[in-house]
Amino acid sequence: MEFKNLLLLLTDDTDEEIISPCIQFCKIFRCRLFVLFIMEPFRISRLASLTHKKTNELHKTIEEQGWKLLYLVEDEATENDIRTSLHHEEGNMIKLIKNFVENYTIDALILRKKEATKKVFVASPVMVIGL
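Above: the chain's sequence. Below: its structure in token form.
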């Protein structure tokens, strides 16, 4: 199977452990890496109520965390000569994934197994790789 464009899905649950295996995967298949950090407003509101934090403060924290993860991926990708395209979006995860797959001709989606909910596997129009 040939991969030209991969989409790495990041959320506020994602830890840095996914970065190196994803970069190595891209290096092996010589493909471009699109990185998408998704903030879901419903999830942020729910987390705010569970943690008794203000929604706007939690939103800002998660947004900053997202940019940090995106730049960590970019740094490691640059060191390994992998072309990247970084995206930080807010909205419904499934809709955003479908839009990216269509707009950037994505061949496969990579995500952490803990984020690999059934809805992503079922709804994704391309192969999903859980690391």
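The domain at 5-130 is CATH 3.40.50.620 (Rossmann fold).
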